[in-house]
Amino acid sequence: MNHPVRLILMGPPGAGKGTQATVIADHLGVPAISTGDIFRANVSQETELGIEAKRYMDAGDYVPDSVTNAMVRDRIAQADAKAGFLLDGYPRTVAQVEELDAMLREQDAQLDAVLVLTVDRDEVVQRLLKRAELEGRADDTEEVIRRRQEVYAEQTAPLIEVYAERGLLTEVDGMGAVDEVTARVFSALEAAGAAAG
Ligand code: B4P
Question: Which residues form ligand 1's pocket by a CB distance below 6 Å?
Fold first, then answer.
């Protein structure tokens, strides 16, 4: 593919976004930009942004759009994102979609595809509880996981329709082994004309 590839990876908490984002981005030679990872890095460094974000993340709520949008705007203005990017976990609200549209317009850039990983609700709870044992993330308790699922259903699921109407949406079955899901993602990207050759 000759022009920069710009992709969004969506899906409910635990769908495998972070897991797949790294593999896809490596393959395409673009940075994987995960808002969750950037927030967590700030939380562990105890920056002002991290202290603000932690209050929301620990409760399973979204960090306010103003904070998240400013952070993404800075990140995609960096040199490595000129050659394209994979956004993992952004946008998550209608206001974030609008802000991303504005950022892209300013760069005279366009999205190539929006991938949504679909998963069974109970399966993701199991995945996240397993991650809690391994990594001890504060937002991976059963109560907070349920809250994150509610927030996704209320605020992020409606975005699927928005991108479907624009003809950008591709749904990918996120159930099964990580490699199987990766293979499905690559077929979907090829079908969408967004896979690197
Ligand atoms: P994220 O870091 O994006 O957290 P997440 O939705 O749980 O996805 P994650 O990428 O970590 O999990 P994955 O599905 O890969 O966000 C965390 C918080 O940050 C949010 O709740 C919010 O507060 C804040 N935030 C982030 N972006 C924001 C935004 N745009 N606006 C406002 N707030 C924002 O994987 C989950 C687990 O499943 C892993 O342990 C993985 O190993 C496992 N797994 C993956 N694929 C598997 C498979 N096929 N089989 C078995 N296990 C699998």
Answer: 13-19, 35-36, 39, 56-57, 60, 62-63, 68, 89-90, 92, 96, 127-128, 131, 139, 148, 177-178, 181
